Amino acid sequence: MKIAMIGTGYVGLVSGVCFSDFGHEVVCVDKNLDKLALLRDGKTPIFEPGLDRLMARNTAAGRLSFTDDLKTATEGADAVFIAVGTPSRRGDGHADLSFVFGAVQEVAAALSKPAVIVIKSTVPVGTNQKVADLLKEARPDLVCDVVSNPEFLREGAAIDDFMHPDRVVIGVQSKRGEDVMQEVYRPLSLRDYPVLTTDLETAEMIKYAANAFLATKVTFINEIAMLCERTGADVKDVAIGMGFDSRIGPKFLQAGPGYGGSCFPKDTKALARIGQDYARPLQIVETVIKVNEEVKRLMIDKIVDLCDENLRGKTIAVLGLTFKPDTDDMRDAPALTVVPALVGLGANVRVVDPQAFREGEALLPNVNWFDEPYAAVAGAHAVVLLTEWNEFRALDLREMAGRMASPRMADLRNMYSCDYALEAGFEAYTGMGRKSAFPIQS
């Protein structure tokens, strides 16, 4: 089949490349000429493990190409996917749909025959119907079918998620739309991956409900971690005990400095706004949003407490800036709350991250960038573990402690334990919901 993918952001690029690996002919469209030049040169504008190799393979096979010519890309396309951003609208938390509606208008003008228009972007309930109405208004001469096909990709594991999905969700309003999408996803259904077909509104709601539920699990265990610190319980063991229950499961029960990234923050806010618009406030989701922001701010207090309640003039090494490992995404990362606060409190902040420099340099001014952690901690008064990159899981803590002016650790991802850190020569350690050891005040 021929597929046009409008937008080469995270979702559009990963989806387009993976569809081409299914054997479909895929043309990815973007207006950014610099990005297109990069893609045509075989380079990816985002960091996603394995994406560059998959892209090169399918480009060489002639199944994948990149253009800014929308009319050529949509000519003869069996399905036109729209995968543009829907960021939170400033001020009210609504999803900003201007990019979606703008892309629909441009696609409508470019079409020369009826087409199946697939909304891959995350959009509030009712948006796909608005897209259908917009197409009828813009092109009354064409009968276009609208499909909702939300994505469920985890950054850092997106290719595996696409190729081995928990489920594929397809929202349709016509037999033709359903038939085209069944053919698009045939390589997955042949391998018995579940393909769920619903109406448009249900497909839209599934995406928001799933992300809000996962965000709730993250926030729940973070609140339990705070309670564990007061009671002496160990949150890692609590999470293991909870996770053995098949009704709960172990995933998304790792305590940390709060969720971030491209999905959870904007999708929880958008879902909360949908509830308010329909006079059915989602109190659990609204509380999750509130608590998540509080968790990020509490991380600052932990670091201040670790440093004798005074950061002025002290050197703090922060390991990890992206919202999760195996991505270069800084959107709503806890680091964007924690690091500026440390700088504002007078600390000299050094940062290390394998992939964050491209975005982080502009987002985090007034910090010093280091290539590796041992150099960053030299002469430092504390080290903060903020993202659980594999590079930070097997550090030589004894060497690190020996290089520091005062070896203290804020392990906000629970990669180590208090006893392990103390045995390695650290004089103080604080984690998330686990045993801590604060310095003795003189």
Description:
- The strands form three sheets. A six-stranded parallel β-sheet has the order 3-2-1-4-5-6, with helices on both faces. A six-stranded parallel β-sheet has the order 11-10-9-12-13-14. It has a two-stranded parallel sheet with strand order 7-8.
- The protein has 442 residues and is α/β, with parallel strands linked by helices.
- The mean pLDDT is 96.
- The chain has helices at residues 10-21, 33-40, 51-60, 70-74, 98-110, 127-138, 158-163, 175-184, 186-189, 200-231, 235-243, 264-277, 283-306, 335-344, 357-363, 373-377, 397-403, 418-423; strands at 2-6, 25-29, 64-67, 79-82, 116-119, 145-148, 168-171, 195-198, 315-319, 348-352, 368-369, 382-385, 408-411, 428-430.
- α5 links the parallel β4 (79-82) and β5.
- The radius of gyration is 24 Å and the shape is elongated.
- α5 runs parallel beside α6 and α12 packs antiparallel against α13 (283-306).
- It starts with a strand and ends in a 12-residue tail after the last strand.
- It folds into two domains: 2-198, Rossmann fold (3-Layer(aba) Sandwich); 199-442, Rossmann fold (3-Layer(aba) Sandwich).
- The longest helix is centred in the middle third of the chain and has 32 residues, at 200-231.
In summary, what is this structure?
The protein is α/β, with parallel strands linked by helices and 442 residues long.
Strand order, main sheet: write it out.
3-2-1-4-5-6
Mean pLDDT: 96
What is the SS-derived class?
alpha/beta
How many independent structural domains? Answer: 2
In CATH, the homologous superfamily of the largest domain goes by the name NAD(P)-binding Rossmann-like Domain
**CATH overall fold name of the largest domain:** Rossmann fold
Largest sheet: 6 strands, parallel
What percentage of residues falls in helices of 4 or more residues?
40-55%
Q: Return the CATH architecture of the largest domain.
A: 3-Layer(aba) Sandwich
Rg estimate, integer Å = 24 Å
Q: How many strand segments?
A: 14
The number of helices is 18
CATH C-level class of the largest domain? Alpha Beta
